[in-house]
Amino acid sequence: MRAGLDWQRVQAMAAAERASYIARNPESARLAQEAGRHLLFGVPMHWMSDWSTPFPLTVREASGARFRDADGHAYVDFCLGDTGAMFGHAPQPVAQAIARQSARGYTAMLPSEDAGPVAAELARRFGLPCWQFALSASDANRFVLRWLRAATGRSKVLVFNGCYHGTVDDVFVDLVGGVPAQRDSLLGQVHKLTDHTVVVEFNDLTALEAALAAGDIACVLAEPVMTNVGMVLPQPGFWEAAQQLIRQHGALLVIDETHTISSGPGGYARAHGMQPDALVIGKPISGGIPCAVYGFTEEVARRVEHAKRSAPPGHSGIGTTLSANMFAMAAMRANLEEVMTGEAYQHMFTLAAQLAEGLRDIIARHQLPWCVTQIGARTEFQFTPTAPRNGTEAQAAMDSGLEQAIHLYLLNRGLLITPFHNMLLVCPGTSECDVNRLLQVFGECLLELRS
């Protein structure tokens, strides 16, 4: 038995679903074969070939909570670009802003008229007064680490075991048997990351304090809720105590809200009274157009400015030519002002709560040792009876074979959830009927696995 299920039955269902997928998607198969002639790994990015499908599903168009593939099949999307389209595909205000801007220019390496209002809205919404832009959260996190190392004169960054902050090399360090180790999956890295990256378990205040006591940590980089190994919630009082320890030892706190922006219009930190020194938001902030933002408190911003003005002239290694381009600024302004509204979030919260409760009911009905966690518009089911407290526990609960079987079963019935783990997002375009359909098919899947 694995995760409370007979493994032979899981394998049999997965094989049947793979065969069904191949039969249903001849055009996607043809396009994948053609793409394989010139695309490395046969896909635009290599991880697109890591899904549960025998070959990639080719998307033809997407709008709201739905998309259509090259074979004409329609899907309800609970993946939403793994948060990149958290507010729906092609939200109308963003599409209109893009259409207007398309005739007015894309990039000039100069401020656009949207840049100031966007920064003002970010300050109002997230409570930090000073902002800069990047093309992805990965870049934004890289830039923040550079700024804060320069501002503090300290070289080390602390992360939590199992964390996710895009493709920032510094964070590819895990605890292996309690010992920090560079992830084997990181390709081409020639520098020893553990010289400048410290890693401890999430929710472990004792380990956090011991690491900070060395006095060489520039900043703690963290998601307020871990999201990449299945969701891991902070234990009651963790962040209150952690913030006090970070301040006490002269380090700074960077909160990455790229995923937890699902928690509310101002993100998890604002909703829960946290006071980070810096904040990063990527994927969804401009409605899916490549863009990210990072903000600082007034005090940290002045330290950052001093570090730059005190440095020799030349390239700082921070920022790219297309950062804050006019196209992205127009899209972000429309998304912030007209899409990421309180009303939209309330709709999402209501449906996510219904989804979470429905998943719990189905799992309990089938007497499976699984749990369900919800943070705002984000819901996840995990193959463990109690919610994990740290990255090690969350990693131990993951079962890629079972995940792939369930995901493919749902996909063949017109429902997409996030690959690599069991996360589901709802957006302003998701309906109660969509949620009920997901719950119905999920229940049918478990019935087939249990019968």
From TrEMBL:
InterPro entries in the record: Aminotrans_3, PyrdxlP-dep_Trfase, PyrdxlP-dep_Trfase_major, PyrdxlP-dep_Trfase_small
Entry-linked Pfam families: Aminotran_3 (PF00202)
GO molecular function: pyridoxal phosphate binding; transaminase activity
Needed co-factor(s): pyridoxal 5'-phosphate
Keywords: Aminotransferase, Pyridoxal phosphate, Transferase
Family stated for the protein in its record: Belongs to the class-III pyridoxal-phosphate-dependent aminotransferase family.
Protein name: Aminotransferase class III-fold pyridoxal phosphate-dependent enzyme
The organism of origin for this protein: Duganella radicis
